[in-house]
Amino acid sequence: MIPLEPEIATRLSVALATGPDALLDVLNGLLLDLPRVRTVTWLAAVPAQKLTRRIGTSDPKHFPLGASDPIDEAAWSRRIYVDKLPIVGNSPAEMAVYIPETAELEAMGYGATLCMPIVIGGATRGTVNLLGDAGIFTPDVLGAVNALLPLAALVFTYPEIGTR
Which of 34, 93, 95, 151 has its CA 20 to 30 A from that of 18? Predict the structure, then answer.
């Protein structure tokens, strides 16, 4: 058994040595290879400022780096930062439970979202978020994302990642 294809392992090793942008590029590629996933964004928690900051994106035009949202008592923040559980919205109705911007996302052609908390040492350090067509987050796709989460956590090992 090969736990990770050698070519992917090499790309990840080079990216880790290069820096967070290179690592995000490799990880975005792996996540975008999942069926019908169209966009990947990354948020880092900035607890001192009680906000999340977008630190990575596969679509900088629509999801620019540096954008921020509060960490507050809203359903999304509670689910991610208190419960440390993912948000799976496989339809606009399911998305709307946690994502206030669902109408805007739907207008952009998205019908599903997945927000996966990256928990390190008991604290949510950030999230990796996937957007695509309604119904895409099948058990197989969720399993593939879960298999990539330990690699995704490497993004949050760069000390400066939350200040981007």
Answer: 34
pTM over 0.70: yes
Confidence category of residue 31, pLDDT binned at 50, 70, 90 = very high
**CATH homologous superfamily for 6-159?**
GAF domain (3.30.450.40)
Domain ranges of the chain: 6-159
Beta carbons within 8 Å of 92's beta carbon, 6+ residues apart = 102, 105, 106, 111, 134
**DSSP helix/strand/coil, 126:** strand
Max Cα separation, the chain? 44
Q: How far is CA 132 from the centre of its chain?
A: 13
Q: Where are the alpha helices (DSSP H) in the chain?
A: 6-18, 20-32, 75-77, 92-96, 102-107, 139-153
Which residues, including other chains, have CB under 8 Å from residue 147's CB and lie 6 or more apart? none
Q: Which amino acid is at 30?
A: L
The first and second tokens of residue 17, run together, are 């040595």
pLDDT (tens digit, 9 = 90+) per residue, 50-78? 999 999 999 999 999 999 999 999 999 99
